[in-house]
Amino acid sequence: MAFMRFLLLIAVLPLCIGFYLPGVLPVEYERGDNVTIKVNSIKSTKTAIPYDYYSLMFCRPGGGPIKADVENFGEILWGDVIKPSRYQAQMQVPVSCAKLCSTKPKTNAKTGKPEIRQLKKLKNRIDDEYRGHMILDNLPVSEVYIWEGRKESLYFKVGYPLGTPANKTGRPSTVNNHLSFAIKYHRPDETLGIKEGVRIVGFNVIPYSILSEKIDSECRQGNDEWRPEQYPPQTVIIKPEDQVTKYISWSYSIRWDEDTNVAWSSRWDHYLQSADSNNEKIHWFSIVNSLLIVLFLSGMVAMILLRSLHKDFNRYNDPENEDEAQEETGWKQVHADVFRTPPYHEYLSAYIGAGSQLLGMSFVTVVFALLGFLSPANRGGLLTAMLLLFVLMGSYGGYTTARMAKMFHAQSWNTIALTGLFLPGQVFVVFFVLDLILWSQGASNAVPFTTMFALMGLWFFVSLPLVFVGGVFGYKRPAIEAPLRVNQMERAIPQQKWYLHAAVTTILAGVIPFGCAFIELFFILSSLWLNKFYYVFGFLALVFVILVITCAEISIVMVYFQLCYEDYRWWWRAFFTSASSGLHLFLYGIFYFITTLRITKFVSTLLYFGWMFVGAYLFAVMTGTVGFLATFAFIRKIYSQLKVD
């Protein structure tokens, strides 16, 4: 009962926290104050490759090179490049229509004809369903739809489409060259001590495609008869040459609306409630499903501990049944080999150390997320926090590795170095290759080489030294002694049936931990690849706790059955039993790619499976570590209860 209350507390905790970053104060604007509108990268779910906003022929602000805002690593990896724009807004000052500029393709100096390279790039981005993104007072721009199939009638979709793609009937692509902004503001309660000024609580847009000649002739401030929906669209044509689009005019309008129902602290609710991850019924179904699995496994573990093991202990430790115990088969018969040093123990120690590092990072990240420090308002904060926490958890990983290595009587600094270099090195190689692919595509989330050197500095000058510091403390601790002596001669292992082989048991057992988390993984993948917000960290914390319990119990159960068949090679089996859930995660990634995503390009497919491999690999190491540590504690406990001469 107390455990269920704890899980319920975690689930409702985020509901008591406002959807904003603690410490960020609201900004009060007075009438006529300038409100800055910034642009962000353009993104598409069809390609999963973001590009700089000004990589297309949009109106650029004057004054030299356009400098991006200071970015953290999470923003760079996510592809956010925030830059100033030519859109101008003054608080509570409506704009009926304002022309930004006209852009046209460059003219070829030799032929005198317009080059279609820029037009072709714009057309390709429109056909790939790219969406533009803007920011006002730290709020992303969004389209608003009426969705009758949900309780909430309004659905907010972040960004706006760059245009309407061409279809097979011959209709050309059209570009959305007019943006109609609707900005909502809220007057704070005077009881808060704020008597003047208003706060921005909404930033919506309706895109239109308008013939450039109409913008040139009729778009002006004070034109109350301006109706953008009544004009013909602006097409983007690259052939034949006599019909090539000569230029494109860009314009915008602004409407200010007072909203008395939305406070500043809850202005992100519309975005988060529109995300699929906010469907509470699905989350609770996932939690109940996972809890049933946990209860089933807990019952099996309890049966082993209370019935089988208790009965075995009484029989083996009873002096009157000494002859019967000697003839008995089962887990007691391998007591002289169960603590034998496994092959490749240095790699096992390194994996357990790195897994402990990942486990600590995940736990602290979830705690910070529950406290509201990693809200969507803090762009890139989640990825940055995970990176820094992994670096700082290096001492924890080094300590765990040292304790393992000393237990195996293989105390060596090479094993400690392996913890800090082996797993991070593998991930870095894949990351570097994927980054080269992004550079070749001109993507905005291609990590600059200066940032790459900074990451390597964190790795070699912060994380690796911390791993060695943890190793020093681990080697200073007394070695973990086996409760039973190990024979010099190895015991012969009986012939095992096919369904008891390691490949079969580990792969099948990994389905259970994966089954506890796969519904939540769907929402996480949607936030990563479909540009949706994920902020149900209460449910994520519940799933994380259930996942840890499930990994521990399934490894204990499978290793116990293995020992009952007198197979004492349990070290790596305990790790791979839970780690195989990473394989199921990758297989689910393939299923998700086929059934949900619309990616067709080879480069985008390569990027998707590259990152899915990294995520599945790290997931496998973390879950495998949980299973191993739980099984190790279980094995030490049951064999320490035996009385062996």
Describe, in plain words, how this protein is organized in 3D.
By secondary structure, the protein is α+β, with helices and mostly antiparallel strands. 48% of the residues lie in helices and 13% in strands. It has 18 helices and 14 strands. The strands form four sheets. Strands 1, 2, 4, 5 and 8 form a five-stranded antiparallel beta sheet that branches. Strands 3-14-11-12 form a four-stranded mixed beta sheet, with helices on one face. Strands 9-10-13 form a three-stranded antiparallel beta sheet. β4 and β5 form a beta hairpin. It is elongated and about 100 Å long.
Brief overview:
The chain is α+β, with helices and mostly antiparallel strands and 645 residues long. Helices cover 48% and strands 13% of the residues. The strands form four sheets. Strands 1, 2, 4, 5 and 8 form a five-stranded antiparallel β-sheet that branches. It has a four-stranded mixed β-sheet with strand order 3-14-11-12, covered by helices on one side.
